[in-house]
Each structure stands twice: as C-alpha cells, then as structure tokens.
Amino acid sequence: MSPQPAGSRRYHPRNVTDDTLRALADNPKPPCGIREISDHIEHVRDLAGIDHVGIGSDFDGMTPPDDMACTR
User: Where are the domains of the chain?
Assistant: First the structure.
C-alpha cells in the first residue's frame, strides 16, 4: 500500500484504514510485475482517458519486482 500512510495516525481521505491493514495480514502478497502494473495503467486509461494517466516516482525506497530491476 503505497504511498498511503495509516489513517489512524493522521486523517486524510486517501489514507489506509486500520481494517484494511488488518486484512492485508490475512491475505497473501499479490504478484505485482510489469504485466500487472501495465494492466492497471490500461484500466485507468480505459475508464478516464489517456490524458488522466500518471505514473508516480514512488520507486525511491522500494524493492521493485524482478522484471523491473532496471528501476533500482
């Protein structure tokens, strides 16, 4: 869950609720490689249009999937 911080520590509508964080502990980590990332981008494009697609630079401090090692 990035970049949203814990909502119970500081309120903001985008922050993650404690219930959501607890649910993460009960579920396995989903696979997230370049195919899954591009699927999300295409979904946003299909819903909102290409002019509303943005890719952030949250790569700082994260461990990228193996197929995105070039972002390190």
Answer: 1-30, 31-71
